[in-house]
Amino acid sequence: MISIDNIETLKQTDLPVIIYGADLVGKVLFNACKSAGIKVECFCDDSINKINLSRSDTVYGLEVVDPANLRDKYSDAHFLVSSTYIKDIIHHLKKLDFTKWYDCSILRNYDHWDDEYTDSWGRRVVSKAFVDFTIKACLSSQEGYLNKDKLFARCVDLVVTEKCSMKCVDCSNLMQYYDTPETYDLESVLKSIDFLFSSVDEVYEMRVIGGEPMLNKDIHLIIERLIAEEKVKRIVIYTNATIPLREHQIPSFKSDKLMFLVTDYAQLSRNISRLVAQLEDNEIAFDRKPVDGWTDSGTIKHHKRNDEENQEIFDYCCAKNNVTLMAGHNKLYNCPFAANAHTLGAVPDNTNDVVDISVESADTKKKIRDIVYREDFVGACDFCNGRSYSMPNIVPAIQVRKPLEYVKLRRMNEK
Hints:
Layout: H1 4-12, E1 17-20, H2 24-36, E2 42-44, H3 48-53, E3 58-59, E4 62-65, H4 70-73, E5 78-81, H5 86-95, E6 101-102, H6 128-146, E7 152-159, H7 186-197, E8 202-209, H8 219-228, E9 232-239, E10 258-264, H9 272-281, E11 286-290, H10 307-315, E12 324-326, E13 331-333, H11 336-343, E14 355-356, H12 364-372
Parallel strand pairs: 1-2, 1-5, 2-4, 5-6, 7-8, 7-12, 8-9, 9-10, 10-11
Antiparallel strand pairs: 3-4, 12-13, 13-14
Helix pairs in contact: 7-8
């Protein structure tokens, strides 16, 4: 943890100070360091695409170093971690024999409201509220990881429907493979939420997803339950802006805990103007972003890799920490790909890859913790192309008329 003494140490050190993470929080952390009199040498980031898409190898005029090149450039350094996934970064640093790392608690005393920030690719200015949300998520996530007495999850993707109003051929959540998608009924979803929080002490961010979550007609009642849950700190509804708010739902969305993340798919987001107007008129927090950053990670294929190859796929996956709850089945997975591939019957049944949170047992909490802080690959990794930051981007949201075919290894009713 960064204390006053640590700050003084970093101000006076002869070693380079490096911010690990060149994204939004990293930019705020740079300004906080500048304000505190800490000289930052450079940034380090796993995402080559972030650097390439910004058409620059620098952030605030500082070099962004690929982690693979750290040892060639520095024999020793202090690292400030600006990521919610501090576990992965500590793991990377330990593999490189770097031992001096710090969380980003310096941000607790930094007032960012006078600063202006762009998104990861420098394409747009993000709202002050979104900056605040992102900083708090990072601080809470790092604190939760470092506190071993609590079961803390940075985020949980709550799947409330398998139906989507679009059919993207490269959807990384595999919606393009469902021929009979199911929308989960309210009672099942609420029970699943109850099961989860009987074991988990805190979830900073519940990400309500689908498919398209607004297709669940009871979405407002699900949101009311999450707002009432003290263990949930933030709620984000991910929408493609095809479904506007229904008037009777709007009061349920008026909470400081809630925000909408609206992805702009251009003409495919046919109701985006209406939705944005509804959110603005009702002072419901939201962030609107263009669709970008898609990779070829929506294909189900049995690669038959060895363990070492699958571990590499897992180690460099950007989605491995997106813990996913299929609310209709009470099943918890490491990522949306694994969750939906299992639900589709496209991967073998592996008890180490899933937790049935409806089963009451003495080790349920341990099993959930193993999912949240997992370090070994899951069985579904061998059926995924991977989702590393270094993968090239593809054209997003190409539509397909019919569900794609895949090899069913299990019957759907075994899900």
